[in-house]
Amino acid sequence: MGLYTAPLLNSYQNMKRLLILGGTGGAEKLATQLRAIARSKTTSIPELEVIVSLAGRTRAPLQSSDRVGGFGGVAGLQDYLQTMNIDLLIDATHPFAAQISHHAAVAAAEVGIPRLMLVRPPWEKVEGDRWIEVDSNAYAAQILPTVAQRIFLTIGRQELAVYSYLPALWFLMRMIDPPLSNTPIPPGEILLDRGPFDLSQERSLLRQYQIGAIVSKNSGGEATYSKILAARELGLPVVMVQRPPVPDSEKVSSVAEAIDWCAMAL
Ligand code: NAP
Question: Is the CB–ligand 1 distance for residue 21 below 6 Å?
Answer without folding.
Answer: yes
